[in-house]
């Protein structure tokens, strides 16, 4: 490997300026151990036109390249055809990169083999577990930074790169040359790294060159024979012909005898695969199988399928094929005759699924769940009879087990239970999450039981059972790869455990792999962790789980005891509505993102596929789609080379280059291509673009869009054809169109209120109140007068938002005579930086006279009634505010029009005052007279009523003898009994005192009537007689008499 190591150190800060996305990068430095970047966030920025850079062996200082949502770096040797590799080491990829991804190609274009994809999902490794080195054997490496949306993100990443030295010998694919000597990769030896050997040093044993494994001495175990107590350990065997298979994920494996069979899978460089291979465990060698077929038919390339072994046959079912189609085919391979057979059934056809699991239980293959474009992620149970070869299916209630994708299922032979763990699970019709739940299914009883949730969600992992332990390995979580690579569920103790004191291989983090068990050893093959793996990882449990073993290999997971809870139906979860997910039926970008389609649809330009937003992780589990377009974030044409009109925009698309037309004006066309030349496409002649006119890394210096020649190398001299701008990229004022790449500009046909229009000819109404395509109509509240729209002012005060406008007109009609008018125009709230001028006129509709012209805002004036002929019909004040410039805080005008108070006329005042005063006095006198007469009338009426009342009272006569000759008992003149009958008012006749002679004084009365209240000593029911009633006077009575 070369001595000199360069590094790409970039900090990205994305800004949105004037509607376009710009990506500015600040220089970054690394601390000495390359574990932390220090970014100069406030430092200088450099701007260049291209979005791409080329780095060669002679480059020492790495320039900083600003630019948009996608940038690209091409790293290549100075002599690309000398069979020297580019070595890349991903040091850092910050979490702040959000949705950004790094796509790394082994070559000079996006059609070169894709060797790695890095994003936030793939965490940066530590120094103890560094990321695997990437080797671009073509001598060139294209790195593309892609982002999904237009949100502002800060992104820092660091990539160290070097070049393989020139070497007198050929080191092949298993070594790198340094100082004229081949440094071989692990598991290879000899001068040119062509002989296989053990990948590790056999400390207490010998290396078997055929199996490339250590034969340990008695009492020792482990990959390098360094373990003495037969505990659990990891190993990373290297097959003799390791390179026979590409790195794959989402493949399927099954064990038949001494062979591990593998079919299909997904490759970054080739997509879905149809390779059938088997691994000879004893010989440590791969063999590519060319199976015969009926009528030359064989399973198509696919991934996410299942493969099980039964009676020397392999049963292949489902999977995702090319173009995203999900298969429902059932293929059967006879491993003895090596012949494929497609099972054809006219009835009971299975539902095609991907990301499901298949488990053999006695004579049945039980397929659980999976993803289907028509039904979404499902909770369907499909059973295939291995003897009668008939399919049947049933559906689990979503409240028992929710629809799941990418889970694991494994059979425990002792109980016949199928243990299901994790998966990408539906919470509701628009929400999916990675799950950490565990169930077991009793297929005969059809019952589900839930175990304890360990709280570590994962999907696309693997599961195997060794003795009484279910081993969960790998997988990805919600936002990153799972941190606990291996978990063990002890079926006998019903407890979760994790291994301790075990050295985990640096490549253990992965998902999408497959695992099988052979001789109590777990074999995990393939998987994805930024790059695809094509090697095995082996895990041996040793005697850790053996009964009576004293070896402490595991530690119990800190959770309560496992719950054995039978699951019953509940309506707590919203079921998925498959009819709303029709994205997979749309086959063009326009159809996928059209206005009446579902908002959840996304378009993948890389694969020409329309997918649902909620199942994006299911459809592209390995982030294999680089260009994703969502409705509202751009147009379909933005992702197609032929629709791009400038070299600068063309370089934003990673698969496009610019072919200059040779005129020296910047005209050309954007084509699909790489660093060296355009791609040859059917039906399009790209052969006329010579290499001298092809631009992939940089753009031609002169970029005038065909409307000018350049002076001083890159400055457009005079923009012709009614164009303007530094690169003649826009139409001049008064013209519209798209002048880029030789486009035309036409006259704007607008009213006199504006001369500007947009690129489609629609006039830009710069006068507040004007509207219409030609700005020839007025908004409600505005009146048209000639060529202008006037706001009809009704007086007092009003605020107007004139931000973005150049003119504003208003009018006020005078309605009162001999009243002066004040007009004030000022900025509301200061409005820093806002400017404007104003003209004020007065007159009628036929003639106006300018009273104030070219005044600056703020402006205040008065119109005195004794100076103007107020009160005439049609006299109007009009204001014309123009040359408005909005400041930093926008522009808000406050206009105030008020009628001013004038001097009082004293004679008129006093005449009016006394007239009002006398009128009030007269009215007061009249009211007083009327009041007196009314009171007199009321009194007379009351007297009459009293007399009438008195006259209507009962009366009687009584004879009184003042001097009686006989002796008699005195009695009352009248007795009036109270209502309760217990008291009475007695009226008696009393003689008043007189003179000594017994005479009444002159002028006085000698007799009077007196009343007294008395109580009865006995109750009587009739009117009292004088002799039968005794009256006793009292001072008070309980009753009240009237």
Automatic annotation (TrEMBL):
Positions of the Laminin EGF-like domain: 702-747
The keyword Thylakoid belongs to this UniProt entry's keyword annotation: no
A GO cellular component entry from the record: membrane
Residues that span the membrane, as ranges: 909-928
Membrane disposition: Single-pass membrane protein
Tree of life domain: Eukaryota
Signal peptide: 1-23
Main location: membrane
Subcellular location: Membrane
InterPro entries noted in UniProt: Beta-prop_ATRN-MKLN-like (IPR056737), EGF (IPR000742), Kelch-typ_b-propeller (IPR015915), LE_dom (IPR002049), LMN_ATRN_NET-like_EGF (IPR056863), LZTR1/Attractin (IPR051568), PSI (IPR016201)
PROSITE patterns cross-referenced by the UniProt entry: EGF_1, EGF_2, EGF_LAM_1, EGF_LAM_2
Coiled-coil regions listed in the entry: none
Gene3D superfamilies hit by this protein: Kelch-type beta propeller (2.120.10.80), Laminin (2.10.25.10)
Cysteine pairs bridged by disulfides in the record: 719-728, 731-745
Alphabetic keyword roster: Disulfide bond, Glycoprotein, Kelch repeat, Laminin EGF-like domain, Membrane, Repeat, Signal, Transmembrane, Transmembrane helix
PANTHER family assigned: DISTRACTED, ISOFORM B, LEUCINE-ZIPPER-LIKE TRANSCRIPTIONAL REGULATOR 1
Protein name from the UniProt record: Laminin EGF-like domain-containing protein
Organism expressing this protein natively: Pocillopora meandrina
């Amino acid at each position: 490997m070369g001595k000199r190591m360069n590094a790409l150190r970039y900090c990205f800060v994305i800004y949105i300026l004037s509607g376009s996305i710009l990506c500015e990068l600040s220089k970054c430095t690394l601390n000495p151990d390359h574990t932390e970047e220090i970014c100069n966030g406030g430092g200088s920025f450099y701007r260049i036109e291209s979005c791409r850079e080329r780095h060669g062996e002679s480059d020492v200082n790495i320039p900083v390249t600003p630019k948009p949502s996608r940038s690209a770096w091409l790293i290549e040797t100075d002599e690309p055809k000398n069979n020297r590799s580019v070595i890349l080491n991903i040091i850092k990829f910050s979490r702040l990169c959000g949705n950004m991804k790094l796509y790394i190609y082994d070559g000079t274009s996006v059609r070169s083999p894709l060797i790695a994809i890095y994003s936030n999902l793939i965490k940066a490794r530590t120094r103890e577990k560094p990321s695997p080195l990437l080797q671009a054997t073509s001598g060139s490496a294209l790195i593309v930074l892609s982002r999904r949306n237009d949100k502002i993100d800060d992104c820092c990443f660091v990539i160290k790169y070097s070049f393989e030295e020139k070497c007198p010998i050929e080191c092949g694919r298993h070594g790198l040359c340094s100082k004229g000597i081949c440094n071989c990769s692990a598991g290879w030896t000899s001068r040119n790294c062509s002989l296989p050997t053990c990948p590790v040093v056999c400390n207490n044993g010998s290396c078997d060159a055929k199996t490339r494994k250590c034969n340990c001495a008695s009492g020792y175990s482990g990959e390098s024979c360094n373990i003495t107590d037969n505990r659990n350990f990891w190993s990373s065997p290297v097959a003799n012909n390791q390179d026979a298979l590409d790195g794959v994920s989402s493949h399927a494996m099954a064990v038949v005898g001494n062979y591990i069979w593998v079919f299909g899978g997904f490759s970054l460089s080739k997509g879905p695969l149809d390779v059938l291979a088997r691994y000879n465990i004893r010989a440590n060698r791969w063999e590519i199988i060319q199976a015969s077929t009926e009528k030359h038919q064989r399973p198509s390339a696919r991934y996410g399928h299942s493969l099980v072994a039964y009676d020397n046959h392999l049963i292949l079912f489902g999977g995702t094929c090319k173009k995203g189609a999900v298969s429902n085919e059932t293929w059967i391979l006879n491993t003895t005759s090596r012949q494929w057979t497609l099972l054809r059934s006219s009835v009971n056809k299975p539902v095609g699924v991907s990301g499901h699991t298949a488990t053999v239980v006695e004579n049945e293959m039980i397929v659980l769940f999976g993803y289907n474009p028509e039904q979404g992620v499902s909770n369907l149970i499909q059973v295939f009879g291995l003897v009668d070869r008939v399919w049947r299916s049933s559906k689990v209630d979503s409240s028992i087990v929710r629809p799941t994708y990418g889970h694991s299922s494994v059979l425990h032979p002792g109980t016949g239970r199928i243990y299901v763990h994790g998966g990408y699970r539906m919470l509701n019709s628009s929400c999916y999450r990675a799950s950490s739940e565990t169930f077991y299914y009793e297929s005969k009883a059809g019952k589900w039981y839930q175990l304890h949730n360990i709280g570590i969600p994962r999907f696309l992992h693997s599961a195997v059972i060794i003795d009484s332990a279910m081993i969960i390995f790998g997988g990805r979580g919600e936002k990153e790869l799972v941190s606990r690579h291996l978990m063990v569920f002890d079926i006998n103790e019903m407890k979760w455990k994790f291994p301790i004191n075990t050295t985990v291989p640096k490549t253990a983090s992965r998902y999408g792999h497959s695992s099988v068990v052979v001789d109590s050893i777990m074999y995990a093959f393939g998987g994805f962790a930024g790059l695809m793996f094509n090697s095995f990882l082996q895990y041996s449990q040793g005697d850790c789980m053996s009964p009576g073993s004293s070896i402490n290999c595991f530690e119990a997971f800190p959770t309560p005891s496992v719950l054995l809870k039978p699951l019953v139906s509940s309506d707590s979860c919203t079921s998925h509505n498959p009819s709303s997910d029709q994205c997979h039926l749309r086959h063009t970008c326009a159809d996928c993102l059209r206005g009446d389609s579902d908002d959840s649809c996304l378009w993948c330009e890389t694969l020409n596929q329309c997918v649902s937003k909620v199942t994006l992780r299911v459809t592209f589990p390995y982030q294999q789609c680089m260009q994703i377009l969502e409705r509202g974030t751009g147009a379909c044409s933005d992702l197609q080379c032929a629709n791009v009109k400038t070299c600068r925009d063309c370089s934003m698309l990673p698969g496009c280059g610019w072919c200059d037309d040779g005129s020296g004006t910047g005209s050309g066309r954007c084509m699909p291509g790489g660093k060296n030349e355009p791609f040859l496409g059917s039906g399009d002649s790209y052969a006329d673009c010579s290499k001298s006119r092809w631009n992939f890394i940089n753009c031609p210096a002169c970029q005038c869009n065909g409307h000018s020649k350049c002076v001083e190398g890159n400055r457009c001299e005079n923009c012709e054809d009614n164009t303007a701008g530094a690169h003649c990229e826009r139409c001049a004022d008064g013209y519209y169109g798209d002048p880029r790449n030789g486009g035309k500009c036409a006259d704007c046909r607008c009213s006199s209120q504006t001369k500007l229009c947009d690129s489609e000819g629609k006039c830009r109404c710069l006068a507040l109140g004007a509207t219409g395509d030609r700005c020839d109509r007025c908004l409600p509240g505005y009146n048209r007068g000639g060529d202008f729209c006037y706001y009809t002012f009704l007086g007092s005060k009003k605020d107007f938002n004139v931000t973005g406008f150049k003119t504003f007109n208003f009018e006020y009609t005078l309605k009162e005579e001999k009243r002066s008018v004040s007009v004030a125009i000022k900025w509301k709230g200061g409005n820093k930086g806002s400017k404007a001028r104003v003209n004020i006129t007065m007159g009628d509709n036929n003639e106006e006279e300018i009273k104030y012209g070219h005044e600056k805002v703020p402006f205040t004036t008065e119109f005195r009634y004794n100076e103007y002929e107020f009160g005439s019909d049609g006299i109007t004040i009009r204001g014309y505010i123009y040359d408005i410039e909005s400041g930093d805080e926008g522009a808000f005008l406050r206009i105030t029009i008020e009628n001013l108070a004038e001097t009082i006329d004293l004679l008129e005042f006093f005449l009016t005052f006394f007239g009002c005063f006398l009128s009030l006095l007269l009215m007061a006198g009249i009211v007083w007279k009327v009041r007196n007469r009314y009171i007199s009338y009321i009194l007379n009426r009351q007297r009459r009523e009293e007399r009438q009342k008195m006259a209507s009272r009962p009366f009687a006569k009584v004879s009184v003898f003042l001097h009686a000759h006989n002796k008699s008992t005195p009695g009352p003149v009248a007795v009036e009994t109270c209502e309760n009958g217990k008291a009475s008012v007695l009226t008696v006749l009393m003689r008043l005192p007189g003179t000594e002679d017994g005479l009444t004084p002159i002028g006085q009365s000698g007799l009077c009537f007196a009343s007294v209240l008395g109580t009865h000593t006995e109750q009587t029911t009739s009117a009292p007689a004088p002799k039968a009633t005794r009256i006793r006077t009292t001072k008070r009575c309980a009753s009240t008499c009237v």
